[in-house]
Design brief:
Helix content is about 35%, strand content about 25%. With about 200 residues, the protein is of the alpha/beta class. α1 links the parallel β1 and β2. Bound molecules: glycinamide ribonucleotide (GAR).
Length: about 200
């Protein structure tokens, strides 16, 4: 069975979606660890309530060593690292050793409204400011860049003229909760392979 770690920074609703899919039998994998770079992240409570091993590695305390510290915890223990609203940027050895084994969810249709500094509500504010008629979410493999690795799944939502950023965020989040477990399922079933920038097999 695929062993995964889920990295979070906040509410952990995407973590919850993964847990729900495992519990319903839709997803066959086990969550070996949940790591947060914020000590008060609600996702940590969600994990603890399911007896999942948790680690809090405060960004302010660990600074640029956070990637290496996470690598030390996860090396040899998991097959896949899932960034589910994790806001620190991974760099160094972990990217090499977990090449094509780290995935991230982003709340927009990459390559729009993504990259350094684009996270959370800001993404939706920018999408509305630009006047797009659709937005959505993307699950992609993580490489050395920010939100730049091969795309596994994208889900689209309609944007309405009177939308606030919060309303758009909620609509996108519903799709995230479908897309992220779906991407993990494809990986756990060995269905996909990467050819250049393309993810094939879905
Ligand atoms: C999600 O919307 C996720 O796409 C976003 O943070 C939120 C976390 O929500 N991630 C980014 O913006 C990364 N660039 P959650 O803690 O409820 O899963």
């Amino acid at each position: 069975m695929l062993k995964i770690a889920v990295l979070i920074s906040g509410s952990g609703s995407n973590l919850q979606a993964i847990i729900d899919n495992i519990e319903s039998g839709n997803l066959k994998c086990s969550i070996e660890a949940v790591i947060s770079d914020k000590k008060d992240a609600y996702g940590i409570d969600r994990a603890k309530s399911k007896n999942i091993k948790t680690y809090v590695m405060d960004k302010k305390q660990y600074g640029t060593t956070i990637s290496q510290e996470i690598f030390k915890i996860l090396d040899g223990k998991v097959d896949l690292i899932v960034l589910a609203g994790f806001l620190s940027i991974l760099q160094g050895e972990i990217l090499l050793k977990f090449k094509n084994k780290i995935i991230n969810i982003h709340p927009a249709l990459i390559p729009c409204f993504c990259g350094a500094g684009m996270y959370g509500i800001k993404v939706h504010e920018k999408a509305l400011e630009y006047g797009v008629k659709v937005s959505g979410c993307s699950v992609h493999f993580v490489d050395e860049g920010t939100d730049s690795g091969p795309i596994i799944i994208q889900k689209v939502v309609q944007v309405y003229g009177e939308d606030s950023a919060i309303e758009l965020q909620k609509r996108v989040l519903q799709q995230e909760h479908i897309a992220l477990p779906e991407a993990i399922k494809y990986i756990s079933e060995g269905k996909i392979r990467i050819v250049g920038r393309k993810v094939i097999g879905i």
